[in-house]
Design brief:
disordered N terminus, D-Maltodextrin-Binding Protein, domain 2, two-stranded parallel ribbon, alpha/beta, nine-stranded mixed β-sheet, about 35% helix, about 280 residues, 11 strands, globular
């Protein structure tokens, strides 16, 4: 007996539909270590959601905003996480490579200066910070503290946090020869918390017991001062994609996850500043 054409199509759809339904959408994410804790929590919550389970596979690398931009330009990731905007030369490379960087601003953050708890100095001006990191001030005694060498710790140059700090706090001047570099917020935190003369800077979400937070230009970094823009070292955090993700894809759903109540809860839990108020 021959099957009618319509019956044949129904049979094929019924036989092979489960295969297509089980096909996974792969999302490679690469970039900022500052955005890292948020992304890790987003991936976990998104993967656990009933309508997402089994339909998407994530890969996450956290090596710096510059690496994220490069990966997006090279087509090695679907999402670049960045704690700074793309530089003009990165945009030019993206356009040359046929890419269209599209930005999702997920929250606000502050670059927070930290020192060892034993250090009595609790506030610095922009000029003082600039002198510390360019090497013209090398002892805490010059800033009203103890007679103790200053150990200045900076993020590595591929970091978006470095870019923001270097541009705003140091006016993009060359850092001193004795400045130490660390490739993540936790590394800076550990170095400062174990070194009495150290000073460093981390994202708001990385502040915890073990270090003292500095006032910058007489303003303490907090959710309120960062949200209002009063804290001068405030900055947004981003997800970037190549063009706007197609409607109905898990990529678009994930990029908009920060707008959900769960997404906003995660941002607050991780110590950053949400863009919405539920």
């Amino acid at each position: 007996m021959k099957f009618p054409h319509s019956a044949f199509l129904i049979f094929c759809y019924g036989a092979f539909c489960p295969f297509f339904l089980c096909a996974q959408e792969k999302i490679n994410i690469e970039g900022s270590t500052t955005v890292g804790p948020i992304i890790d929590a987003f991936v976990e919550a998104f993967s656990e959601a009933a309508d997402s389970s089994g339909n998407v596979k994530f890969s996450v690398k956290k090596t710096g905003s510059g690496d994220g931009a490069a990966a997006l330009i090279d087509g090695r990731c679907e999402i670049a996480t960045m704690s700074r905007s793309m530089k003009p030369d990165e945009v030019q490379k993206a356009v040359k490579a046929g890419k269209t960087p599209t930005t999702f601003t997920i929250c606000m953050d502050g670059v927070c200066l930290i020192v060892h708890p034993s250090n009595p100095v609790r506030q610095l001006t922009k000029e003082q910070v600039k002198k510390i990191y360019t090497g013209s001030v090398s002892n805490w005694q010059e800033l009203g503290g103890a007679d103790m060498p200053i150990v200045a710790i900076s993020r590595d140059t591929s970091s978006g946090t470095y870019e923001v700090f270097h541009q705003i706090a140091v006016d993009s001047e060359k850092l001193g020869n004795k400045v130490e570099y660390a490739n993540s917020n936790p590394q800076i935190f550990t170095r400062v918390s174990t070194t009495p003369g150290a000073i460093g800077y981390v994202g708001l979400g990385f502040l915890k017991t073990g270090v003292a937070t500095m006032q910058y230009e007489n303003v303490v970094p907090s959710r309120r001062t960062i949200a209002s823009g009063k804290y001068a070292l405030s900055r947004p955090l981003f997800l970037l994609t190549n063009g706007y993700p197609p409607l109905g894809t898990k990529l678009l759903e994930f990029c908009n996850f920060f707008l959900t109540e769960k997404g906003q809860d995660i941002i607050e839990t991780k110590g950053f500043v949400p863009l919405t108020n539920y």
